[in-house]
Amino acid sequence: MKEKTNYGNWVPEKALYMLFGVAVIFGVIAVAVQVILMEPLIAIAAGIICILTFAMAVYMLICHETFAFGKGNMMAGVHEHLVDHLDWDGEGKLLDIGCGAAALTVRCANAFPKAQITAMDYWGAEWNYAKEQCEKNAKIEGVADRISFQKGDAAKMDFPDEAFDAAVSNFVFHEVRTAKDKRDVVKEALRVVKKGGVFSFQDMFSQKTLYGDMNEFVDILKAEGVSEVHYIGNLEKKLDFIPRFVTTPWMISGMGIIYGKK
């Protein structure tokens, strides 16, 4: 029997356990307070918290199943959209910035069978991913011989200028805590792309609190020498495989893509 890959999920299972656990705790408190202490107001308050927490837990569980590879496959659809906007012949070296559990990395390896791929991530205890998990997934998928994984900071990558023919990144830049200005993370990603190389980045680009005016930013990138930059904003409203119930401010909101040629 073939070993299964583990690409994780945008909704960690630990978060689900915590939400359902909190709902149960407040449910028990509500019953105990009413039965033992006979304090109806406290019992009602605890009961309301229980109901609200349980409702959020169910919502997050539905989102988890929608995102999951092999189930709802929404994450796979998001990755496919990114790769479809990478106008590359697959000859040379590709960098995946913030590879997580290597789901996008493996998709790129399958889409570009001649490419040599470097995948980097900060990983760390606060994330539900690890380098060993990436290496295991790549081995299971049969592409480990063309991928190297390394730890790094997307705000200051340990690669020389113009080291790669192509670069991709998905929902990573806004998470980079070592960069106050998220535009700087985009510029750092472009730094390592060769002149004439290509890129495709997806992130919360339509959130002005993170990136400001994206049309202005595109003009800045062009003025700094990027020959071709395209931007599509609010993708959560345009991609038919993204259900409306996940397009909330705390889930998928302000999703955009920038792609083109340096």
Give the topology, please.
Elements: H1 13-37, H2 40-67, H3 74-84, E1 93-97, H4 103-111, E2 116-121, H5 131-140, E3 147-151, E4 164-170, H6 182-191, E5 193-203, H7 208-211, H8 214-223, E6 228-232, E7 256-261
Parallel strand pairs: 1-2, 1-4, 2-3, 4-5
Antiparallel strand pairs: 5-7, 6-7
Helix pairs in contact: 1-2, 3-4
Structure summary, number of beta strands: 7
Distance between the termini: 44 Å
Percent range for β-strand residues: 15-25%
Q: Could you name the ranges where pLDDT drops below 50 across 5 or more consecutive residues?
A: none
Order of helices and strands: HHHEHEHEEHEHHEE
On the 0-100 scale, what is the average pLDDT? 94
Silhouette? elongated
Give structural notes:
By secondary structure, this protein is of the alpha/beta class. Helix content is about 40%, strand content about 15%. It is built from eight helices and seven strands; from the N terminus they run αααβαβαββαβααββ. It has helices at about 15-35, 40-65, 75-85, 105-110, 130-140, 180-190, 210, 215-225; strands at about 95, 115-120, 145-150, 165-170, 195-205, 230, 255-260. It has a seven-stranded mixed sheet, with helices on both faces. β4 (about 165-170), α6 (about 180-190) and β5 form a beta-alpha-beta unit. α1 runs antiparallel to α2.
